[in-house]
Amino acid sequence: MSRAHAIKRGVSLYSYQEEYFLRKLSLEQCVAQATAIGAYGIESLAEQMMPGFPHLPDSFYARWHEWMQQYRAVPVCHDMFLDTKRYKNRLMTEDECVESIVRDLKHASRLGCKVMRVLVFVSPELMEKCLPHAERYDIRMGIEVHAPWHFDHPWIMRHVEMIQRTGTRHAGFVPDMGIFTQRLPRVMRDRALRNGATPAILDYVSQAYENGVLCEYIIAEARKMGGNPVDMGFAEASRHNVYSQPRRLLEFMPYIFHIHAKFYEMLDEGREYSIPYEKIVPVLIEGGYDGYLASEYEGNRHIQDAFDVDGVEQVRRQHAMFQRLLGEPAAAARATH
Amino acid sequence: MFDKYMICDSGLRNLTQSGQIAGFQFGARLPYYRGLGLSMIEEVAVTVDGQAMARENVRLKLRDRTYTLAEMETVYDQVWEMGEVAQVHVLQPGGLTTGPHRIELMEQLRVSYMPFPIIGRDAKTLNLEA
Fold it and tell me: Going by C-beta distance under 8 Å and a sequence separation of 6 or more, which residues neighbour residue A312?
């Protein structure tokens, strides 16, 4: 576990969305929270925490760079969105899509990022059209390999084919560790229970998912068991989540330059309930991954109906786990980066 | 995903236009983790004390401008930001009576990467404020 590696820690500010939504944390305070736990790599979502985007004034970018310096933070990744359904009666044309992506490349560049997260629904053809622009801004565009997609899914295989055919270094992947969801998140199950689900069906679905039963079988069985709409929603979670083999990361390592460390619930004993980081991190070390592990906390939406959300504490716990798995002395984490 | 925050806890008021009570208003947010352009807000549906309000009587006041839902369909340069409070106006001569009212709100969003719209729902009992 203590093998030499160059993996760095970061936070996607997405993790603090509940606090930002309720205006308990400002953008600057989100940056401060991340760096306070030694997670210096900052991933940001302009459409979440930078009101006015895409028309941000120069003064915004100046302030951003002041914060980066003040908190010793590193702007790592900008998460783009693409409103292909912006118009009611038609989809955006390919040229309009390129224009929108260029807008995001420019923003990423102004933030000082080297990586842009690209939504997985963007096609390899559109990515290829954007390559000259990504080269111009020198931003690496990473398709977010997000559950239920995974590296062996035909859509991702087509992206791999495009990357290999063009030989580009400006397109690749930002895998979301949700592709290694070995157990359905307990927070999802508990929420379903609060919403009126049937315990026996929740137990069946959770166990069957963990056993690798095909999602179509799980959904059909839940229906046979007399599942109500909440039960069926939980059964559908077996379709939206996926557990693929963490060692598959090794083959694609040359194309991976950023990672979303998705998580739903950090347990008191320092493990994530559903995603086995104990298996994942050693694979990243073995593969020589040298980018950031950026926290992406997504438990809030499953607990906010009944509990106060504390994204800051959840992220802190995840980083204590990373420090352990990366062989990083906990106390030294604040002093170095 | 942020459904429970859609209707603001306070701020239900009658709406006065040229000396007449023309309807009522309350604060609302999007149930989404990012801002969205108004053209992609497909529905803002209000029910008060069990009675559905007509779509053409609903307005959204975002910052300094007020839109009908039909107008919003072609507004491409204004974003309802994440967590930002906008005012939902409902035109109803006489407005609401004093006391508590059950407000239900549904918002339907056209989110490009989703194969179906995101629908958020919230319901709160609010007291009409002066």
Answer: A16, A19, A25, A33
- Test A47 with B82 for CB contact under 8 angstroms: yes
Beta strands at A41-44 and A74-79: parallel, antiparallel or unpaired: parallel
Q: What domains sit in chain A, N to C, each tagged with a CATH number?
A: 8-184+242-334 (3.20.20.150), 186-240 (no CATH)
Looking at this predicted complex, what is its ipTM? 0.95
Number of domains in chain B: 1
Residue by residue, pLDDT tens for chain A (337 residues) are 457 899 999 999 999 999 999 999 999 999 999 999 999 999 999 999 999 999 999 999 999 999 999 999 999 999 999 999 999 999 999 999 999 999 999 999 999 999 999 999 999 999 999 999 999 999 999 999 999 999 999 999 999 999 999 999 999 999 999 999 999 999 999 999 999 999 999 999 999 999 999 999 999 999 999 999 999 999 999 999 999 999 999 999 999 999 999 999 999 999 999 999 999 999 999 999 999 999 999 999 999 999 999 999 999 999 999 999 999 876 444 444 4
Q: In which order are the strands placed within the sheet that holds A292-297?
A: A171-175, A140-145, A115-118, A74-79, A41-44, A8-12, A292-297, A259-263
8 Å CB contact of A121 and B33: no
Indicate yes or no: CB of A121 within 8 angstroms of CB of B113. Answer: yes
Q: Is B47 a member of any domain?
A: yes
